[in-house]
Design a protein that fits this description.
Main location: secreted
Number of strands: 11
Structural class: mainly beta
CATH superfamily: Galactose-binding domain-like
Helix content: under 10%
Family: Belongs to the fucolectin family.
Organism: Periophthalmus magnuspinnatus
Strand content: 35-45%
Protein name: Fucolectin tachylectin-4 pentraxin-1 domain-containing protein
Number of helices: 0
CATH architecture: Sandwich
Order of helices and strands: EEEEEEEEEEE
Oligomer: single chain
Number of domains: 1
Subcellular location: Secreted
Length: about 180
């Protein structure tokens, strides 16, 4: 697990962060919702209304029949995953819970971030556990130290579980290094 801390340079005009070190410099895209360009998958799909991609469509609508939420079959250890297409330093994750039913279904879900697909990505480092998100509410989880990862999973341990997510926003940045010198 890698972590980075930015320097004082932060240009809103260029949307970049600058990270100095003793030998090199690197430039990073500012933290944005990188899940929007990702590819989503889940352990199963209960119905075509609840496909995995609905959680990264940019729509926080918490009503399942409005086609913006995911839904797995009843199963043991259901999971949902977004492939960000390349590693990002993830800074925080916002999850929107379903409003029209069953808010408690997310209780105990784990948020994991990393670069491994072992156990479908569910063995990646744990960055947060969802104790409870009220019905129809979006809750943000800060990722301490900006964890690097290509995959973000929501994993619900236990038997006889449904996993439903109405939006998953993953905020992070991607770095390019080394640069020949400090920014202008």
């Amino acid at each position: 697990m890698k972590t980075l801390m930015p320097s004082l340079f932060n240009s809103k005009e260029t949307n970049l962060l600058f990270f100095p070190s003793l030998l090199t410099h690197l430039m990073c895209d500012f933290s944005v919702n990188v899940a929007l360009a990702g590819k989503a998958n889940q352990s199963s799909t209960m119905h075509e209304l609840g496909v995995a991609q609905h959680a990264i469509d940019g729509n926080r609508d918490p009503i399942y029949p409005h086609l913006s939420c995911t839904h797995t079959d009843l199963s043991t250890n259901p999971w949902w995953r977004v492939d960000l297409q390349k590693p990002y330093y993830v800074t925080f994750i916002t999850i929107t819970n379903r409003k029209d039913c069953c808010a408690q279904r997310l209780d105990g879900a784990e948020i994991r971030v990393g670069n491994s697909l072992d156990n479908n990505g569910n063995n990646n480092p744990l960055v947060a556990t969802i104790s409870h998100i009220p019905s129809g509410v979006s809750k943000t989880f800060k990722v301490t130290g900006a964890v690097e990862g290509r995959y973000v999973n929501v994993f619900l341990p236990g038997a006889d579980k449904y996993l439903t997510l109405c939006e998953v926003e993953v905020y992070g940045y991607h770095c390019i290094f080394p640069l020949p010198g400090p920014p202008p």
